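Q: Convert this sequence to structure tokens.
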Amino acid sequence: MVPAADSFSLSLGEFSRPGLGLAGLELAYDVRNGRLVARAGHLEIAGQQWRDVRLQCAAASLQGTQLKCSRGELSFAEGKAALAFSFSLDLERQAGDIEIALEDGGHLKAAMSSGGELRFLLDNLSLSKVSRWWPALAAWAPTGSMSAKGVYRNGALKAQGSLREAGFSSQTGLQAAEDLELTFSLEARPERQGWGWTADLSWMAGQAYLDPFFIQALPWSMNAHGWLGADRLELTEAVLQMPGVAQLAVSAVFSLGGQRLERFSFSLAGGELAVLGPTWIAPLVAPANREAVNFGGRLAAGLEWADGELLAADFVLEEASFGMEAGAGGEGFAFGPVNGYLPWRMAGEASGELSVGEGRWERLSLGRFSMPVEARDGTLRLGRTAIPLLDGAVVFDDVHVRRQAGQWLGAGSVVIEPLSVRLLTEALGLPLMNGVLAASVPGLGFRPGEITLDGALVVSVFDGYLQATGLRILEPLGASSRLQADVELRHIDLAQLTETFSFGSVAGFVDADITGLELSRWRPVAFDARLYSSPGNYPRRISQRAVEDLAALGGGGAVAAIQRGLLGLFRDFGYRDLALGCVLKEGVCSMSGLSSRGDGSFLIVQGGGLPALDVIGYNPRVDWDELVSRLQRVIAEGASVVTD
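A:
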């Protein structure tokens, strides 16, 4: 009789199945003390890998063909805590069951019949605890719980389950979700050394932020099918049902080993822009002001993307409208209805055209215009487009857009055909002025969040001109859009200027230089400005009221005390020179004039001829809002402002 062995062991070099890999398996059982130890050097399931996987049972028993364990632990190198488990196996019938107790009361149960059928049940599985032994999940800080049940029979898998109060957050915070409620079902079968699968998903509650999109359950549902290999997940097609969409289909390929999206495409039909726009378009075009953007009409679209590059895109607009509500310091804009086809191709070519019924930018109404487009080898070109404005037009020419280094970059030229300044000021609700506005900007450039104009904007006004150069518009659709420029004014007729703005009467001409001008929502926040008499011989007179108005702006006592009595005797006075400067920074205007005086005051108007008087400013630092209020009161009241 051969004596029974006190222990036995076995080893297995490598074992693999679609989506499953096992290497370096060792099993040892000591009959005397009931200790069972199983170790695998490497375990891989659906692309997720674990090292040094250990199963230890301190109270195992082998009776005939029955192997049982009541106090076992499962651990591995990547895990932060061991899992408690128990099992019972019939080695002859190849049947048994296993139960793993999880923290927070969750359980994993599985039972295998002699016919090879495997049933499993996940009950209240804590996602945060699972992440301790599933490294791929740990980086997403999952929360909530999952329950599921399923069966594996004749090589096919069927499962269904749900997520409750689930959420996640990436390390950067750019992807996050909370209060998710989802149900799912899954079927899989062996195919092409992997698994072919179909799935249904319903999202009933919760919200997610996937930078830059904020998405809420409406609810959504999806039916999908694809293929899963050892290191590759293929989404052959997913059809989504969601409010505001007649049909939406998606396909994709994801590398499990490289953790990257290799290919992605979608097609959309019957999209209602009023529903889709706030979630999917506004965050792209106006991320800081998305709630102020409004949409209407319908959209059809298609997109193909691969290896980090956009390959093709197509958009069809039907009676679409786009606009932004008026905000602080601005009147907003609106365009529509917009109809037409807009394509883009990384390789090859396609052409289309967009027609716009009408538009509004701030207080300016724009006429009907059309925009021909051509996509060729990664560049989108816009044909010559003339947008009617008042009695002229804004003409864009040779505008082309190209995607480079992950950004959309563009260039072109723009011309403002002569516009009546009188019509312009009337439309803007400003005091009526005569003159002509024209511009030629041969170097128009734009990138995300910035528009630059390499040229000059020229306005012929008050028998002189205003010229703006170095124009930059930052965050044009943002909540804090800004305009930067340098401005010069030459030979401005003071008589026309002061008459237009009801600022007394001054005869003469002035020049002005404004450097570092910055407007936020059309309100100045910074500049260095200086206004001064133009060179040359011409009559220089200033009225009594203009003196008083300048006195109001310059602060109390702005007229030399010894000359104050002259104001009641004469209607106007001669002057030799005038100058007024302001450096605006952090809401304060640092004022200056022709010259500074020892007591901190500064000379604004130097008298000359008969009668003559000087105007002096005594307050070199003035709150900008207060200065603007003074000027507005002077103009509105048509009389001097009394100051202390």
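Residues 624-637 form the longest helix (14 residues).
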